[in-house]
Amino acid sequence: MMKRVCNTRFAMSAMLLAVFLLVTGAGAPVWARENISAGQAGDPTDGEGISSTGSATPEGDTYSSAVESTAPHRRSDDKDWNEVVTLTVVAHPDLTADQQSMIAAEYFPGASARQLKVRRCLASYIIQDLRLATNAEKHKPPEYQLLVSNADKLGTAIWAE
Known about the structure:
Largest sheet: 4 strands, mixed
Shape: elongated
Number of strands: 4
Radius of gyration: 21 Å
Strand order of the largest sheet: 2-1-4-3
């Protein structure tokens, strides 16, 4: 049962991240992002602007006024979005050897650590969502069972506490 709960937690985190990327358009195909930025999609919450064929109607176009002017910055200008950092997740060192091996078997089967490659701007959200300790002296078990072992090298990618 414990293994199922742990695997579900990682799966839920991955699913939340995938939904976030899809909602923001980052995970959408290029043609879909172009349609959204060109104002060719109606507001999905109210159903207006969508004809019976599923295409947006000009009178219901809620996005055109928002994209009439170009944004002052492009996605390529956001260095934190474009940089990928690696979070090295290990069992917390303050756990006993038996506890560390159990945690490793649950979270990273067949390995002693897991490398998570995430966008720099999302690193703190991943750490918060997975309840990862970033400071072994300050964040102790049982509240924190996992530790980001390379937190000191991440600098401003993670929120200071």
